[in-house]
Amino acid sequence: MKYYPEGTNAALFRKFESKEELKEAMKNSQIAEGKVLLCDKDKNLHIDLGFCRGIIPYKEGAFGIQEGTLRDIALISKVNKKVCFRIIGFHRLENGERIAVLSRRSVQIECLRNYIEKLKAGDIISAAVTHIENFGAFIDIGCGINSLIPIDMLSVSRISSPSQRLSEGQIIKTVLRKREEGKLTFSLKELLGTWEENAAMFCSGETVGGIVRSVEPYGVFIELAPNLAGLAEYSPSLREGQNVSVYIKSILPEKMKIKLAVVEAFDEYGAKPELKYFVSKSHISSWNYSPPNADKIIQTVF
User: Fold this and answer.
1) Burial 178-199 (b: 16+ CB within 10 A, else e)
2) How many angstroms separate the CA atoms of 152 and 161, rounded?
3) Model pTM score
4) Mean predicted confidence (pLDDT) in 3-13
């Protein structure tokens, strides 16, 4: 069975039409998804199932709640979002309403055992960006289980915030960088091309668009692609994040340098560049960013 980040597989979103359909789904231990309507004062999640209401009890809300490793915000933040679950029973409330009792925790435990615990460093998977912090982007790697891409692993071109590279809700490819006890760390930059692959998209003499990423006393770093930046002369008028057009003076593979000249700077600031993936395999054992004869070696070994 394949396990998806929550909200990314439309086939899992269910609206049940009868009690019999609910019972059949429980009998077959089917995994489904529904939209969270409410997180009540006891931190139970209320789900619209169509035929009736479903409730995910607090301790069934996520793996880690019972274990004390997950805070309540992990449940509160799910309101108005889709979550996975399976039906584990039925219950009649004091007002006579009959509800389905759901478990998200059991789906996550299954996902951990059958999928996530089997991932190896170098495996490439699809994930959904759930939220962004200054230090990195959190991603759903399956059934609402979160992991992290640190900011320095989002691209070779340096950025001051992950929001300059990714957006919440975005579906991306990512590679497992390392596995530690109780912690998985993912990376993106190894999938966005080597220096040569990115430089091949440009030629000396061209004038192209770029984004100012860093203004230093010795020059201005301008991003041409997420994994490629060039250097222009220092200008006190340029600001980080600014859109510019630049003339490509020279491309030097052995030094991994691109010399630029700023033609024009614009008042608007750069939008997130579209991610271009250069890896189509499901696993990589190593990645060499540097050209073969480069003075500096940049590589990742998984």
Assistant:
1) eeeeeebbbbbbbbbbbbbebb
2) 10
3) 0.93
4) 97
